[in-house]
Design a protein that fits this description.
148 residues; alpha/beta; Rossmann fold; five-stranded parallel sheet; 5 helices; 32% helix; disordered C terminus; DHquinase_II
């Protein structure tokens, strides 16, 4: 199964950016652990601070991959364009956030993307990514002695 983890603005600073909110570990140090936890899945990741690059990546994989795990960062609350892109593609998307958005500032409690996603996971730090990947794995048809 091909899964893309797509990270938006400022997520390249994980481990250094506001560690009290986002933790002390970088995504790059976590990703090999995620790959090891799901060895049968083809996991790739992409990060950009630029909205257009995120849109281009959604368009690129949105009809070929089995799933997208999307942490749009601050664009979650502001980008109609990203919400439209998620709505337009065929690939299911799970929205993830490291912090618990319900416990954050008022403007962070509204997601423009969520209504177009299969689901949203927030508040579990980097484990939010693992939970999202596990959901995609659970959606695979069960193969017991035959091919589907």
């Amino acid at each position: 199964m091909d899964l893309l983890i797509l990270n938006g603005p400022n997520l390249n600073l994980l481990g250094r950016r506001e560690p009290g909110i986002y933790g002390t570990r970088s995504f790059e140090s976590f990703f090999p652990e995620l790959e090891a936890a799901f060895p049968e899945q083809k996991l790739t990741h992409f990060q950009s601070n630029h909205e257009g690059a995120l849109l281009d990546k959604l368009h690129e994989v949105g009809f070929s991959h089995h799933g997208i795990v999307l942490n749009a960062g601050g664009y979650t609350h502001t980008s109609v364009a990203l919400a439209d892109a998620v709505a337009a593609i065929a690939t299911p998307v799970v929205e993830v956030h490291l912090s618990n958005l319900a416990a954050r500032e008022d403007f962070r409690q509204k997601s423009l993307l969520g209504r177009h996603c299969a689901g949203s996971i927030s508040g579990f730090g980097l484990e939010s990514y693992r939970l999202a990947v596990q959901w995609f794995v659970n959606q695979q048809p069960k193969r017991v002695g035959f091919r589907v």
